[in-house]
Design goal:
heterodimer, A: alpha/beta, 7-stranded parallel beta sheet, 5 helices, B: alpha/beta, Rossmann fold, 2 domains, 6-stranded parallel beta sheet, 4-stranded parallel beta sheet, 12 helices, 12% strand
């Protein structure tokens, strides 16, 4: 099975999410019969008026010869694919809880409201079609439920939490096989 | 396809060695005429302007990405819309709609390429096409191989070697056919990974049907660089006979660094920019008999095999195929 891990990127920026994406590819490759590659789509969210274009461009890209997509971040996860699993590290929080907390770059104006609505609509359409949705923490899980009305399973990134073990709680797991 | 990966990764590595910071972005593109313009538009919307001091783009549609300091090293064009329009490779119908599509695509290319500060190509063929269809001047910048010193001369053995992707347009079948006509005891070795199982089966069938198992080795595998260098160093010469390629292809350079002559054909395209008949290799008609007589000629005259091989090595310098000038020009 050809698996494409999809995330966004900012040139020359590297952090935990980039590390996690790389590790996921390496670990998928260890699975028998899986070949995995990483796709990093450039993302630029300033000024916030760009966001509509960023959403559109991700939706206009096209994949071929890929059996499954595992997508991690907004707006890269919007890339069309019939067999998409989401592992949300977070949503575009500026359009959700950070906006409510007054910490967003999106203006409190009708233009800003349009941007937030566009993000929410694009997100909901994508979540609706996803094969499965995992999130990286109960916080992300709760946010997804509150703002978008979608349930997700918590799948903790082993890298950030190396001691995590499979729990008996049915709503959380840390098994790599889950993805 | 694999050649495209190499040129990008090798240049990135050479720029890093030169002290630059490099980040490489690979983006998807589906070869689908129905969505080609939409995909190009998606690329066009990518915003990298403030994120790097320079952008280097290689393959369409990456050339449409905007950047105030954009350098193009074009190694590919949508040839179906360009020189192959009047062939069976035309991707859309030759009707009013198809022709409008073609005009828009060429206009978009012209505009995007025109924005670049520097335009390089990998061959005179590509530069000429750019001039003809887009009226854009460009400079040929021949792509070197990453580690040329790995390829070193050795004996001039009995084998004509072809190490390349095994696929219809590389025409390994022609080399197999040629072996039916050789008069000497020359041998043929074909190595590489096959892109199509049916083409590979066709080659096997042809070898068996013509009882050529004694003189042909078909080595169906990915050949690691060190292994490749060893095989080439013991070769009599290299055969590389793709149909109408845009560039000379890495097999030519690998051969030349190992001082081996390259046997190619008059319709191989960019290969002819490197190989000169009876000077740095041999050029013949794309016919089995013609190739067979080249194989025989070198088998029967190792001195010539060596002389052409040494000239091929000199040809690399003549065309200035090395990383130092490439890095300098890309950064200019």
């Amino acid at each position: 099975m050809k698996v494409l891990v999809v995330t966004n990127m900012v040139p020359f920026a590297r952090g935990g999410a980039e590390e996690l994406a790389d590790r996921l590819v390496v670990n998928l490759e260890r699975f028998g019969g899986v070949s995995a590659e990483l796709l990093r789509i450039p993302f630029s969210w300033e000024p916030y008026q760009r966001i509509a274009e960023e959403v559109m461009l991700c939706r206009m890209l096209e994949l071929h010869r890929v059996d499954r997509v595992i997508a991690l971040k907004f707006p890269a996860y919007l890339i069309p694919h019939e067999d998409k699993t989401l592992w949300l590290l977070h949503q575009f929080r500026q359009a959700y809880d950070l906006y409510d907390a007054g910490q967003s770059n999106i203006a409190d104006s009708s233009e800003g409201d349009n941007t937030r609505r566009l993000v929410r609509n694009a997100d909901n359409a994508c979540f609706e079609k996803a094969r499965r949705i995992f999130v990286n923490s109960p916080t992300t899980q709760e946010r997804l439920r509150r703002y978008n009305g979608f349930d997700a399973l918590v799948l903790r990134p082993p890298l950030n939490d190396p001691d995590a073990l499979p729990t008996s709680d049915p709503t959380t797991t840390s098994s790599p096989a889950a993805v | 396809m694999e050649g495209a990966v190499f040129i990008v990764e090798w240049l990135a590595q050479k720029l890093i060695e030169h002290g630059q910071q490099v980040d490489t972005v690979w983006l998807p593109f589906a070869d689908n005429p129905d969505t080609t313009l939409r995909q190009m538009l998606a690329y066009r919307m990518i915003d990298l302007a403030g994120r790097a001091d320079k952008l280097v783009a290689f393959r369409p549609p990456a050339h449409v990405i905007r950047h105030p300091n954009k350098t193009l090293w074009l190694i590919h064009q949508f040839r179906g819309f360009y020189d192959l329009w009047d062939t069976s490779d035309r991707p859309v119908a030759d009707d009013a709609r198809g022709r409008a599509f073609r005009r828009r695509l060429i206009a978009a290319d012209t505009r995007a390429i025109g924005e670049a500060r520097n335009v390089f190509t990998n061959s005179r063929v590509v530069s000429a096409r750019l001039k003809q269809f887009n009226n854009i001047d460009s400079q040929v910048l021949y792509p070197p191989i990453y580690c040329p010193e790995r390829f070193r001369p050795g004996e001039y053995g009995d084998e004509i070697v072809c190490i390349s992707r095994i696929t219809e347009h590389k025409r390994q079948h022609l080399l197999i056919e040629a072996m039916r006509h050789v008069k000497s005891r020359v041998k043929l070795r074909l190595c590489g990974v096959s892109g199509s199982a049916s083409y590979y089966r066709r080659l096997i069938k042809s070898i068996v049907a013509h009882s050529l198992r004694g003189s042909i080795t078909l080595d169906h595998r990915w050949v690691a660089e060190e292994d490749k260098a060893n095989i080439i160093s013991q070769a009599l010469a290299i055969a590389y006979v793709p149909f109408d390629e845009d560039s000379y292809g890495y097999p030519c350079l690998e051969a030349a660094h190992a001082e081996k002559a390259v046997i190619t054909t008059v319709d191989s395209g960019g290969v002819l920019e490197f190989v000169q008949d009876r000077r740095s290799g041999m050029i013949c008609d794309p016919e089995p008999e013609a190739l067979a007589s080249c194989f025989d000629a070198l088998y029967n005259d190792r001195y010539t095999a060596k002389r052409l091989g040494i000239a091929a090595r000199q040809r690399v310098d003549e065309l200035q195929i090395s990383w130092a000038p490439v890095v300098e020009k890309i950064l200019a």
